[in-house]
Amino acid sequence: MCPPSDHSHPIAVDAPDTATPGAAASPALIEDLVIANHILFDQGVVDAFGHISVRHDKRPDRFLLARNMAPGNVTSDDIVEFTLDGEPVDARGRKVYLERFIHGEVFRARPDVMAVVHSHSHSIVPLSVVKGVKLQAIFHMAGFVGQGAPVFEIRDFGGDSTDLLISDNALGRGLAGMFADADIVLMRGHGSTVVAKSIPQVVYRAIYAELNARYQLQASQLGDVTYLTAGESQACLDRVEGQTQRPWDFWKSQARERRRGTAG
Amino acid sequence: MCPPSDHSHPIAVDAPDTATPGAAASPALIEDLVIANHILFDQGVVDAFGHISVRHDKRPDRFLLARNMAPGNVTSDDIVEFTLDGEPVDARGRKVYLERFIHGEVFRARPDVMAVVHSHSHSIVPLSVVKGVKLQAIFHMAGFVGQGAPVFEIRDFGGDSTDLLISDNALGRGLAGMFADADIVLMRGHGSTVVAKSIPQVVYRAIYAELNARYQLQASQLGDVTYLTAGESQACLDRVEGQTQRPWDFWKSQARERRRGTAG
Amino acid sequence: MCPPSDHSHPIAVDAPDTATPGAAASPALIEDLVIANHILFDQGVVDAFGHISVRHDKRPDRFLLARNMAPGNVTSDDIVEFTLDGEPVDARGRKVYLERFIHGEVFRARPDVMAVVHSHSHSIVPLSVVKGVKLQAIFHMAGFVGQGAPVFEIRDFGGDSTDLLISDNALGRGLAGMFADADIVLMRGHGSTVVAKSIPQVVYRAIYAELNARYQLQASQLGDVTYLTAGESQACLDRVEGQTQRPWDFWKSQARERRRGTAG
Amino acid sequence: MCPPSDHSHPIAVDAPDTATPGAAASPALIEDLVIANHILFDQGVVDAFGHISVRHDKRPDRFLLARNMAPGNVTSDDIVEFTLDGEPVDARGRKVYLERFIHGEVFRARPDVMAVVHSHSHSIVPLSVVKGVKLQAIFHMAGFVGQGAPVFEIRDFGGDSTDLLISDNALGRGLAGMFADADIVLMRGHGSTVVAKSIPQVVYRAIYAELNARYQLQASQLGDVTYLTAGESQACLDRVEGQTQRPWDFWKSQARERRRGTAG
Fold it and tell me: d(Cα B227, Cα C260) in Å, to the nearest integer?
C-alpha cells in the first residue's frame, strides 16, 4: 500500500461560494433535515459517512445539505445551500461533501424528487457486489424497491481505477440517469442512493431498503424466494407510503430523547 | 415507481365510533397492554409498526388495541376499544390501525384466545418467503411453534396484486381460519400473527418465535436439523409456558427502567 | 396446540427446605455470584433464563444459586444454598429453578469444579441441533472448548417426548457424566452447560463459548475450517486462562456502571 | 481439559524497567492514544482484549501502549513507554501486555508506521480460519485492505502446539515480516494487526477492516463477488484516507459523551 499521494482529493473539500443567495429556506424544512440526519444515524443507515439532502422549498434549482461532517451531530447552523451544479451558496469557508454531485444531478434529472439519501448501510454493500443479484422487494414495507433495483457500475463511466466516488457532475449525471425507472439505485462496492417526495419518505425508504437487503441476504441462503409481484410492489407502495408520519414521529421522538441534555 | 394514487388507503385510518360503549375494561388489563407495547419494542419484535391486542375482560365480544401509533410510545390514553368487526367504540376521532381486522377475526374464530400480536420481526420475514420452508420448533422455549407453522399466502385470498395487508374482515377471516390447528401463522412477505391465553404469554411467544426463526435460519445453513418431535413440542409448551411470570416481570422492570424520567 | 395440562411442572418450583444450614458462605463469594449474574446478562449469554452457581466455600457438598428469577436483577438476598441433591437449605418459601439438578450433579461428578453456568446463548442453540456438527475450538480465546464438545441428547436418557429440561437428579447425572472429558457440553435443542475452577473463569468461558460458536457458524458457511489442534487448545487454555482477571475486572466495572442509580 | 500448568505464562506479565527514560511524549499524543482505546471499544473492535500503540513522537525507537488492562477504561496514567524490543521503560511494577512484541517488531520493520492496532474483531476471526479465503477490498472505505491480505500461520514459525500468541521477539519478527507489502495481516485463529501513519488512520482502518470482513462473509454466501481492482483499491486509499478527521472527530465526540459523568 502506498501512502496517500500529493494529488489526492479528500472527501471534504473547500469550494468557493459562487452563486448568489436568494430567499431563505423554511426553518421547518431545515429542522426536518437536521432531525433526519440524526434519525439516519440512530437507525444505523449512516455512520460517520453518508448524507441526506432536500430540495430548497423556495427555489427548486437549489438544495440543502449539511457541511462536511458526521450526520449524527448536524445542527441547523451546519446546513449549506447548493446549486444543482453542486456549487455552495453560503458555505462561507466551511468544507463541503465531495459527493454533493449525487444530490444536484438527481434533483436535476428528477423534478418530482424532493429529498435524497446516499449511504453505505450494512446489508446494501454486500448485495451491491454479488454478480447476478439485484435488490428486489421482499416484503410489504419495501414496495418502492420494485422488481430489481439497478446497480451503478462506475467502471462503465470512469474506467476500472476510480475511487468509486461520485466526485464530479459527469459521474453524477451517470448515476442520475439510472433513476429514470427507479427510486433506489445500488452503487457497486459503495452503497446506494434513494429518492422520495419528502424528507420523512426518503428516511423511511433508506431504513426499509436496508431491511429489505438484510432479509434478502438471509432468505436467499435458504432456497428460492417468493418476491413481491409488480402489482404487489405498486399496491404496497401506494398503501404503506400513503403516510410515513407514524414512523417519522416515532423516530423523531427517539432522536430527541437520545440527545436530551447533550450539547448536540 | 409511481407516486401514491389518489385512491390509496393509508395504514392509519379514520373510522367512526359505531358501537355503544359498555363496562370499562380493568385498569390493570390496560396497564399490562401498555407495558406489553413497550416490551415488544424494547425486545425488537416491533419497530414503528406492529401491534398487540387483548380481549376485553368484561365483554368477550370486544377487544382493546392502541390507536394508530408506534408501540414504543403507547400510554393508557391511547388504548381504544373495538368490536370483533373492527369497529372502534371510543376512537373519538383518533386514527386507528388499518389491520385491526386481524385481531377481531382471530378473537372471533378462537374464543380461547385472549391476546394477539402482529409483527414483522427480523428473522420471521425472511423465513416467510423461502419456498418449501416452514417455521418449526427448534428449541425448548418455542414448543408453541409446533411441527411447522402454516404460512398465509394472501394471493390465495386476494389475488397477486394486493398490498399484502389484512385490510378488511374477509381477509381477516382468511387469516383467522389458519389458526384452527396453530397458535402462530406466518404471513408471506409480511410477518406473523401469534395468539395466546394472556398478555404475558403472547409477548413471550412473539419474542421466542423470533428467536426460533433466527436459530432456524442459522442452523439450516450448516446441515440437517434435529427439530423437536411433536411430543417434545407439547411437553415444552406444557412446562415452559406453565408460567411466563419470570420473563414478564423482568421485561417489565427493564421497560420501566428505560422510560424512567422520560415523558413517555 | 393444547393449553398447559393440569399436570405441568413449572420452571419455577416450590421446594421445602429439607437440609440443615451450616457455616455461612463468604460474603465476597456471594458478591461475585451476584455480579456474575449481571455480567452474563449484560454480555448476552442469558436473558430472562439461564443460571450460574458456585460451590459453597465452607462446605463442598453444597452450592449457591439464585432463587427463581431473571439473572439481570439478582441481588445477594436472592442467593439460595442447596445440597448436591438440589434440595434448598434456606429457600424459605421462595421459588427455585427447576433445573438446579444440573448444578448439583455436576458438582458431585467433578470435585474440581467450583462454578457452573447453564445458558441458551444465541449461537450455541443452532449449533446444538445440526446433525454431525460439533462445537470445536476455532480461536485462541476458546481453548477450553477442545476438539469437539459432546452433545447431550436427552432422547437417550428420557425418550423422545420430554420437555428437554434437566428436571430431576437422574437426568442431571446423565448430563454430568458427559463432563468426564470435557468442560463444556452442548444440550440438543436447549443450550449448553460450562464448568470452571472459579466464577470469573466460568463467566469467561460462557462468553467465549458463545463467540466460538458464532465464529464457527460463520466460517463453516464459507469453506473448510482450520480448527485448533489439541496441542494448541491446551496451550491456549494454559496461557489465556492463566488469568481471567482482566476481563472480569472490566465486565464488573461495566455492570456496576450500568446499574448506577438504579434500584437493582 | 487439564488445569493451567504451573509453567503457564499469563497474558499479563511483570517486566522490569530496563531502559532509560528520555524526553516525555507529547501530552496530545497520549490523549489521542487514550481516546483511541475508548473508540476501539465503543466500535466493537476490541472487548476486554486487544490493544493500540503509537510510536513515541520524540524517540522513534520507542512506542507507547497501555498497561495490561481493558482498552475501554484506559486513562493517561495507564500509558507505558516501551523500547522496540518490548522492554518497558516506566512500567514501575504495573503488569504489561504479553503481546507487546507485535508492536515493537512492526515499528522496527516499518519505519513509516506510526500506529498499530491488534484485535480479534468479530468478522475477522472467522475469515482468518477458512482455507483458501483471503480478506480482500470489497468497498471504497477499505482500499487499504488491497487484493488479498496475508494470513500469519503461527504453525510456520512455532509448530502446531503454540498458544497462538506473539509472546516473544522472534514471533513478532515473523509477523512483522508480512507487512512488507501489506498494511493489514490476519492471524489464523487469532485476529489481525493493522498499521497506519497516525492514530486516527489506524483506528479508521481497524473499524473498516472489520466491516469489510463482515460484508465479505455475507456476499460470499450469495455468489461470485466483484472485488475492487488494484487501481480502485489504491484510488480509494488515496481519496478516502486523505483525511480521516471526519470520523475521528465524530467517534471522539461519542466516546466523550458516553463517558460523561463517569469515573473513567
Answer: 42
- Which chain C residues are closer than 8 Å to D264 by Cβ? 253
CB distance B89 to B166 below 8 Å: no
Amino acid letter, residue B184: I
pLDDT at D91 over 90: yes
Measure B59 CA to nearest chain A CA, in Å: 30
| Chain D, nearest residue to C197 by Cα | D3
If we measure between CA atoms, which residue out of A153, A179, A181 comes closest to residue A166?
Answer: A153
Query: Cβ distance B190 to B120 under 8 Å?
Result: yes
* A142 CA: distance to closest CA in chain D (Å): 21
Is C214 in Cβ contact with D164 (below 8 Å)? no
Give the ipTM of the model, two decimals please. Answer: 0.93
Residues of D within 8 A of A127 (CB-CB) are 219, 222
C175 to chain D, closest Cα gap in Å: 17
Q: What does the alpha-carbon distance between residue C103 and residue C53 come to, in Å, rounded to a whole number? A: 7
> Contact D246/A129, CB-based, under 8 Å?
no
B99 is catalytic: yes
D99 CA to centre of own chain: 11
- The helix/strand/coil state of B50 is coil
Q: Are D67 and D92 in contact (CB under 8 A)?
A: no
Per the structure block, which three cell numbers stand in for C146?
Answer: 477442545
Please answer yes or no on whether B130 and A222 come within 8 Å at the CB atom. Answer: yes
Interface size between B and C, measured as CB pairs under 8 A: 138
Q: Which residues of D touch A68 (CB under 8 A)?
A: 246
Q: Which of residues 195-234 of A touch B (CB under 8 A)?
A: 197, 211, 214-216, 218-219, 221-229, 231-232, 234
Sort strands D62-66 and B151-152 into parallel, antiparallel or unpaired. Answer: unpaired
Which tens digits make up the pLDDT trace of B22-35?
A: 899 999 999 999 99
Rounded to an integer, the average pLDDT of A134-139 is 98
Altogether, the residues listed in chain D come to a count of 264
Distance, in Å, from the CA atom of D95 to the CA atom of C200, rounded to the nearest integer, reads 19
pLDDT digits (tens, 9 = 90+) for B116-155: 999 999 999 999 999 999 999 999 999 999 999 999 999 9
Catalytic residue among B31, B81, B87, B99: B99
Strand partners, A187: A152, A191
Instruction: Give yes or no for a contact between B263 and A253, defined as CB atoms under 8 angstroms apart.
Output: no
Instruction: Return the C-alpha cell found at D98.
Output: 504479553
Dihedrals phi, psi of D134, to nearest 5 degrees: -125, 145
> CB of A126 within 8 A of CB of D219?
yes
Q: Is C130–B250 a contact, with Cβ atoms under 8 angstroms apart?
A: no
**Residue A144 with chain B: CB contacts under 8 Å:** 1
Distance CA D116, CA D106 (A): 8
* Whole-number Å distance between alpha carbons of D160 and D158: 7
Write out chain D residues lying below 8 Å of C197, CB-based. Answer: 3
With an 8 Å Cβ cutoff, is A190 touching chain D? yes
Helices (H), ranges, chain B: 27-42, 100-109, 124-129, 155-158, 169-176, 199-220, 230-240, 245-258
Task: Indicate which of A201, A240, A258 best probes the interface with B, i.e. most B CBs within 10 Å of its own CB.
Answer: A240
Closest CA to C214 of C153, C103, C135, C108: C135
Query: Are C122 and C209 within 8 A, CB to CB?
Result: no
Q: Which of B250, B251, B253 to mutate to test the interface with C (most CBs of C within 10 A)?
A: B250
Picking from D85, D93, D14, D53, the residue whose alpha carbon sits closest to that of residue D193 is D53
Distance CA A17, CA D75 (A): 43
> What average pLDDT values come out for chain C (264 residues) when binned by 10 residues?
37 78 93 98 96 98 97 97 96 95 98 98 98 97 98 98 97 98 98 98 98 98 97 95 88 93 52
pTM for this model (two decimals)? 0.94
Residue type, D232: E
